[in-house]
């Protein structure tokens, strides 16, 4: 159906509107010659559910709009050039942010300008559907697509003289709606070409936003790298829709801490040090905030932290064991509470030269943990590594001969994959290790793939190696380490740290990670290969990662939560569209989102 109506259809729509506002919500079908367009009928229903007063004459002034918003800066050259061509016409262009607040207005003839002033169609005022009902700006936000509203299709009396043609400005890289561009004219001047015209113009603005975002992100990351290059201070960079942290910052912060800092970053003066920030687990830190500016626009906020308890030296400085425990935690990103009962006992075992067997699923980082444990505790000794997986390749006789030769050297012994040996080879290796340790007492470490209570190894070898057993947690059990690990892997791979939106981060926390650390490292690599510099949103994640939950849920809850996650991803986060797709009210959807911690 054409978005421009002849006089007869305008009159029929006006009558349908009067009936609807009078309480008759049974509208003729769109196929009926007397029908109202379905998109308009749905919007009228939403407006009624929002409780919008159609006779409202004054709109609330939401904010005072300056000239420094990124969206306005990107759109201004295009829209100012266009407005020069519209100078003698009774037309206008409105630019609004993603909340429906007008941030820019370009008007042709002064007569229309006075009319728009009387209807509060000016910068700082909100035209969201929740405020004023169906219109060619707020309804675009709800539908997330080009949208025309002609004369009596408007819900409010205030706008029935207008014809409005709006289109969303969608970031091509992230898929996020940045704002809305709306073309306004009188009803009698409307044309069916106006909707494609405004859609094309909004796409041009979106391309400028992409170019600017790439420049802004590079500027922010440059400042972040400069700040962290020669500093071990916990540091974070807050961008428009991402947070990145150095390893120390990721180690320090829990999942909830960045929100605290983000709120403070918007209240503190640049460079100031305010009251201590409350972090997780009862810790406090002092924070300094520095805006990152590019061409007079704030493109990020750099936050540096100093732990309150370590800001000044004193009698309560940590002892050597505490420092050693902290170093081990930092080196292996072991800050999730699941590690609390595991690390101190393993350090006690090393202090007493008790053999340590490191068990865990494949990919949990057993060999890396063993090497780091050695470097933190007995780094002055060389590390002698015997990989039992190689016995099948080189032949067990040759491998055992090589092991015997290696064990005659001085140093910490690390036997990897001890469960790969057959019974006879395991018995011989046990004898070789026993002889080597008797002649030269030293630390013995070993790794075993699987549950030590289930995976069987030769009893003699087990007696020698399993003086103390530590089973490393699966990735799913240590999601508090996720940010730290992703930053470490990005460093190892030589790529920029991942920039994850809240939806994406929550989904990664909910994912089961069957491949553990190896899968996480592959995820960092493939994500940065596909998107070298941009932010990663929920829709950018592999499909299997989008099918998990943030907490232990019943089967019905799990299915319900996943349906919401999928709908939000398909609708680019637009909750109204997602609610309609799911067949629930917006209030219900908001309640479910809060319940399942999706926002």
Describe this structure in words.
By secondary structure, this protein is of the alpha/beta class. The strands form four sheets. A five-stranded antiparallel sheet has the order 2-1-5-4-3, with helices on both faces. A five-stranded antiparallel sheet has the order 7-6-10-9-8. A five-stranded parallel sheet has the order 12-13-14-11-15, sandwiched between helices. The chain is built from 22 helices and 17 strands. A hairpin with a 5-residue loop joins β8 and β9. α3 (70-85) runs antiparallel to α7. The chain is elongated.
Structure at a glance:
The chain is 43% helix and 16% strand.
Shape: elongated
- Number of domain modules: 4
Strand elements, count? 17
CATH class of the largest domain: Alpha Beta
In terms of quaternary structure, what is this?
Answer: single chain
For the sheet with most strands, the description reads:
5 strands, antiparallel
Mean pLDDT figure: 82
Number of helices: 22
From the alpha carbons, calculate the radius of gyration and give it in angstroms: 31 Å
Provide the helix percentage: 40-55%
